[in-house]
Amino acid sequence: MTEKAETPMLLLHPCRGLIDEKFSLIVQNLSQIQDITLHALIHSDDGDYWEAFGHYVSDATGFVNVANDSSLGGTYDGVEPMGLLWSMRPVPGSRIGLRLRKKEVHTPMVVHISVYSGHMSQGFREQVALASVVTERWYMAPGVRRVDITEGGVTGTLFLPPGPGPFPALLDLWGGGGGLVEYRSALLSSHGFVSLALEYMTPRTSGGSTSHVGNEYFEAAFTILKQHPQVCGDRIAILGLSFGTSVALGMAVYSTVIQPRCLVCVSGSHVQPVKGSLSDVFGEIKKNVRNTRYDEENRVIWRDLLLPIPTDPTKKVDVGQLKCPVLMIVGEDDQNWPATESAEDMKQMMERAGNSNLLTTLSYPGAGHLIEMPYSPHCKVSSFLMPISRERGAFRKSDHSCRQSVHN
């Protein structure tokens, strides 16, 4: 009598966790030295499908452990325990310019993971999986509260950790694409921070202009955080990405209202007119629009719009006046913003002023403009809406060159 072969099994732990939490993935009950493909699939909030896959070979006991075993091909190579997340890409035939952004933070990102016989690179839907498992990846931990903010002319979303507090807090500023982006704030709150995701530079908040890029708008948002009963008023940071970095640096130096405990600046620059509103940054960019370049697929490269870094002190934030620690996160292949040159100029300015001890720079070779949270999919190019007219509050769609080739 022939002994019946055991059914392959996928073991994943934890099945439910935060998006930046590692999981373990094991395949057992395979044949000896069997070629398999592990495949991950998600259906995004935008209605698009994303996938990742890796090629593995089981050992003499019919076992694959993704934490220790190498992927021999697929969307990632080598020992990459979280490769099935960070190497995700739109499935073939998808719309161009996609970027994976969680819009509904109160729901999880549901990931379907399956194992297939053989080394496959396509046609997963037409094949029957040997085994499958589902994992939920959350941005909001249990107990985190989401609160809409519309007070004092400010529009945004406040995320509060569970418990009475008081907690350290952050003002969360995204870039020139504008809009209300919540998933980073939701995750920060899941790790114990009160976080205010601020909406600005959108038709809803602009009132026919980019007035909500004015200094008073950000000061009002900072004040909301400072006065909140669950916030430590002297422990408020500003986190800025791209144009959000311009806001963070300008406010920290020149505002009499905003006194942050520290700044975290991702892929940004200190180059901006010192006098007037932050809206004037767009005026400087428009002056250098002739420096726009395009890649081989006619996608926009903007990194030269603020180059060369000006020597005129009225054209950049006097970071020598900074009184709080600053973390600059730089991608050395940033095709969107002169982040590397800006960080170097900031270093020189702060050395001359004697406050360079406040500056820490993390510089990643090969990384681009869009540096996101751990295990987020890479995004080489994405499309977004940007303001092109301060007078009319107009917005247009742009292919945004965001080469990202590093994961945390």
From TrEMBL:
Residues 216-384 form the BAAT/Acyl-CoA thioester hydrolase C-terminal domain. Residues 20-151 form the Acyl-CoA thioester hydrolase/bile acid-CoA amino acid N-acetyltransferase domain. One of its GO terms (biological process) is acyl-CoA metabolic process. The active site is at S242 (charge relay system), D334 (charge relay system), H369 (charge relay system). SUPFAM superfamilies: alpha/beta-Hydrolases (SSF53474). GO terms for molecular function: fatty acyl-CoA hydrolase activity. Belongs to the C/M/P thioester hydrolase family. This is Acyl-CoA thioesterase 19. It comes from Salmo trutta.
